[in-house]
Amino acid sequence: MTGLLQTEAFDVEKVRADFPILKRKVHGKRLVYLDNAATTQKPQAVIDALVDYYSRYNSNVHRSVHTLGEEATAAYEASRERVAKFVGGEPREAVFVRGTTEATNLVRYAWGEKHIAKGDLLVSTRMEHHSNIVPWQLLARSRGATLKFVELTPDGHLDMGSLEELLRESPRLVAFTHCSNVLGTINDATAICAKAHAAGAVTVVDGAQSVPHFPVDLASIGADFYAFSGHKMLGPTGIGVLMGKKQLLQDMDPFEGGGEMIREVFDDHSTWNDVPYKFEAGTVNIADAIGLGAAVDYLTALGMDNVRKHEVRLLDYARDVLSGVKGLQVYGPEDSQQRSGLVAFNYADVHPHDLATILDEEGVAIRSGHHCAQLLMRCLDVPATSRASFHVYNSYDDIDALKQGIMKAGAIFKV
Amino acid sequence: MTGLLQTEAFDVEKVRADFPILKRKVHGKRLVYLDNAATTQKPQAVIDALVDYYSRYNSNVHRSVHTLGEEATAAYEASRERVAKFVGGEPREAVFVRGTTEATNLVRYAWGEKHIAKGDLLVSTRMEHHSNIVPWQLLARSRGATLKFVELTPDGHLDMGSLEELLRESPRLVAFTHCSNVLGTINDATAICAKAHAAGAVTVVDGAQSVPHFPVDLASIGADFYAFSGHKMLGPTGIGVLMGKKQLLQDMDPFEGGGEMIREVFDDHSTWNDVPYKFEAGTVNIADAIGLGAAVDYLTALGMDNVRKHEVRLLDYARDVLSGVKGLQVYGPEDSQQRSGLVAFNYADVHPHDLATILDEEGVAIRSGHHCAQLLMRCLDVPATSRASFHVYNSYDDIDALKQGIMKAGAIFKV
Amino acid sequence: MSSADIYRELILDYYRNPRNFGKLEKFDIDSHDTNPLCGDEIEMQIRVDGQNRIEEIKFTGKGCAISQASASMLTELAKGKPLEWVRQVVKEDVFKLLGNPDLGPSRVKCALLGMKVLKTGVYGYLGAHYDEPDDRSG
Amino acid sequence: MSSADIYRELILDYYRNPRNFGKLEKFDIDSHDTNPLCGDEIEMQIRVDGQNRIEEIKFTGKGCAISQASASMLTELAKGKPLEWVRQVVKEDVFKLLGNPDLGPSRVKCALLGMKVLKTGVYGYLGAHYDEPDDRSG
Ligand SMILES: Cc1ncc(COP(=O)(O)O)c(C=O)c1O
Ligand SMILES: Cc1ncc(COP(=O)(O)O)c(C=O)c1O
């Protein structure tokens, strides 16, 4: 290994030592993990938080009077506070969910089914993950509303003209991603929310690919709902967050019924607990919520500005290195400042799955497929792309390994 | 410690050594954990499964071509197979959810909102946890249906006459618990399902307090839907299972939209993946599903018959010991064979919360409150009860400690 | 502090013989709340006199010794006070009434239920909104 | 087995020059499926003769070399066979066509997509239902 990246930001070699999985070999090769947009690896601190919870103070929360219960409740709520603060929000506005997908679906059921009426317009965009399209399709169908999409510009941005046009039709909802999981495009969430709110819409912002990669401040973005997933930001699987403005949350129907979210149950009706508990039915995912708190601590210690700096350097390096590969087409905006740390591409007529299989043999893990963004694939007019996505432990070496793997695929496929 | 229980079944001392949390002290005393109906503790094997996953093969599942992805997918699906087999069901009929509460709510949304019409009758019972009441209340309200409850007999069983009467009204749904989390009553799920099916109803059985405590065989029970929670059966928080008959699952609408559950997405509609994936939207809780597999392995190694034998002995002992305490009233059936390993009670005019606080000082963790069963509390005509609930690591010693704590409360409250 | 200290003679006495327990025939304020975490329940009724003072106050409820005793003690303290006084009440006042017991966060909610009911009722009467502080650690 | 062995000359040739690629003007069976896990897509059309034999078969699709090559190879093998023969086809037959590559479980799904489409179409025509075996390990 020669080119381990040394940013002023942090010492990548030291960071790598925090991630036990990076010691592992794949097909006898060093693991080069470039599938971070799908899910990130976990630092020892997060794993330790889980072990500590289960070994020392595992208990159900909120309703317990005993010591374990008090400790588990305190840790769970402390995690809520840290996670909310991490994105510039209030703990009371932070609902723990399984992930981004559950968050958007929660909004669909608890806000949408109550507030959307026949003939209403819902707006999403053509660069969304299915999780920010399908709930609105289902909502449109169940309420008799219409769903339209903001078009894209050829260089992979949201077409602001298209947005403005749709806003003139007074949509009730504008759902868009803060950052595309394929193009890498970082949308100006603050500006879009302002426009959408001016048009009278409620905004749902998908933060799955933003919160893990650069500083996010909800106080300035002003989104009504903002969703993200723990497992994409060094946290455990099974936990994520829906941030919602308190007034909206209070005015919503419950989502799931039972357990924590109840105040009183009578034969024919029930009353609900305060927000955010009203939306946390049943036994919550205590351990993983606490694990997410540890992930937030880890990222905070590195500093999200530094994480962003690191990824931009990787991005610049990747684009330099890959621009030399004949037949390789990269999607999304040119300017690294306008995009997040991932590169989606196609290489000659080598199908992404075949490329991924060949790369895997070299220890290089990338994602291949439609990335749950089939509308976007149709815009790009490809059935699939390959995607290499970065996080804090990636280095220049990793990108060199990616390039070497691509060259090998080129040789096998006689590109 | 004198009276550690030695069943022919298994060596409790050896079992206890598998649970790291049992080494901990509470207020300087040995931890006596008797809150297992709320959530159980976890053996080292379950903790190790999580650590192993995150340290060695963490990856997103199903859509990955690379080695980590293949390994994670194989482990996740292997866990589904083990968990389904554990309850005598088919892997294809096993949907991973957060827990019992999400399971019943999934049935409400995906089956109920599609199949229940105005004027239909839904049936639940007065011994249900809120998770098996509130979803049906919400369903009844949204579809214009009616919800009625099976009454209880004075000795804490379902009143079969009341059930028969309701069945004559041809309900569309009969939702009931396999085992009460307060009374301990074990219902004859096989007989009730048969009766309900004969009346044309779909059955939803709450297995949250049965699967962890005695052998369950869905092939013979024949429930249409059967729900349980991982965290109550030595598994991690955040994972549970909805077992559903394949035909019913296929015929249902999706629940949450996005990610895994998609086949194809178009502008105006989408098509769904096969069951059970159709109901697993977004990134699933991979680690905890694998952890639940480890819990199932642990229970299988002990043998669920042995677990049951062990709990019945504890139950008999507890009822012997506690029957000597003046002013103590135990709820539920007399016969240990008809009940699960828990004892709910009230002690003189000492409120359960106050009792729990005093017991906590002795290291004894019990639950106090309405146990999310407010309709049942009204039947019992109490605002709350105390509940001591057992699992594999509990011993006669634990019950002695419980009794001593109660006596102390009696002294403080001058009972 | 041990539970023997928490459950002092005085607390048990207020639990078993709550002062100001009952309903008012005529009242200006009626406030009710439950603790969703444990089901404890308190209702308070208040009659306000010409000078906006608490002329009469009674409560009913069910729940643990701590929730019932603290509610009862609070009614005693409130009686005769100006409504504005209620705005000044803080949780430390309640703890003091109880003898400053060392309560865990969930039991703190029991102790403060009465204060919440009192404040919600009086704030509402004064045309204000009582927003419970987001203080999970008690 | 290394990827160089998986992607043999023959597979690449079928990928780039798929035999029986296209649509039939007249057909009795039209079957289509996608692999929800990766988006690979195959459509097959079959014309059946008087003796219930596969008189003509063509496919279209998009996807990786493995899914497209295996579908193409399968159409070659199927042509002229009685419909009943399709019932006998097992995944090992497909693997053999591909040269028995060592595929991970997710790539196995690519390899078997063509067989699934063929079976679904033919079983349907015969009035039967093709239930994909619940074989996650491939
Ligand atoms: C009988 C019963 N049903 C349902 C539940 C709810 O389970 P969960 O909180 O895991 O969703 C519980 C436990 O709280 C229970 O005891
Ligand atoms: C942009 C975007 N939105 C939403 C999601 C869905 O997140 P999850 O699968 O954690 O629910 C993802 C990741 O898969 C994503 O990249």
Summarize, please.
Chain A is an alpha/beta fold and about 425 residues long.
Task: Report what the structure shows.
The complex is a heterotetramer, with 2 copies of chain A (415 residues) and 2 copies of chain C (138 residues). Chain A is α/β, with parallel strands linked by helices and 415 residues long. Chain A is 40% helix and 16% strand. In chain A, the strands form 5 sheets. A 7-stranded mixed β-sheet of chain A has the order 4-10-9-8-7-5-6, with helices on both faces. In chain A, strands 13-14-17-16 form a 4-stranded antiparallel β-sheet, covered by helices on one side. Chain A has a two-stranded antiparallel sheet with strand order 1-2. In chain A, strand 8 (202-206), helix 8 (218-221) and strand 9 form a beta-alpha-beta unit. The radius of gyration of chain A is 22 Å and the shape is globular. The mean pLDDT of chain A is 96. Chain C is an alpha+beta fold and 138 residues long. Chain C has one domain (3-127): Sufe protein. Chain: A (Alpha-Beta Complex). Chain C contains 6 helices and 3 strands. Chain C has a 3-stranded antiparallel β-sheet with strand order 1-2-3, with helices on one face. Chains in contact: A-B, A-C, A-D, B-C, B-D. At the A-B interface, helix 2, helix 3, helix 4, helix 5 and strand 11 of A face helix 2, helix 3, helix 4, helix 5 and strand 11 of B. Bound molecules: pyridoxal-5'-phosphate (PLP) (2 copies).
Radius of gyration of chain A, in angstroms, nearest whole number: 22 Å
Strand content of chain C: 15-25%
CATH class of the largest domain in chain A: Alpha Beta
Q: How much of the polypeptide of chain A forms β-strand, as a percent range?
A: 15-25%
Largest sheet of chain C: 3 strands, antiparallel
Sheet with most strands: strand arrangement of chain A: 4-10-9-8-7-5-6
Q: What is the averaged pLDDT score of chain A? A: 96
Q: What coarse outline of chain A follows from CA principal-axis ratios?
A: globular
The CATH homologous superfamily of the largest domain in chain A is named Type I PLP-dependent aspartate aminotransferase-like (Major domain)
CATH architecture of the largest domain in chain A: 3-Layer(aba) Sandwich
| Helix run count of chain A | 14
Gross morphology of chain C is: globular
Determine the mean pLDDT of chain C: 91
Structural class of chain C: alpha+beta
Tell me the radius of gyration of chain C.
14 Å
Give helix and strand order of chain C, one letter per element, not per position: HHEEEHHHH
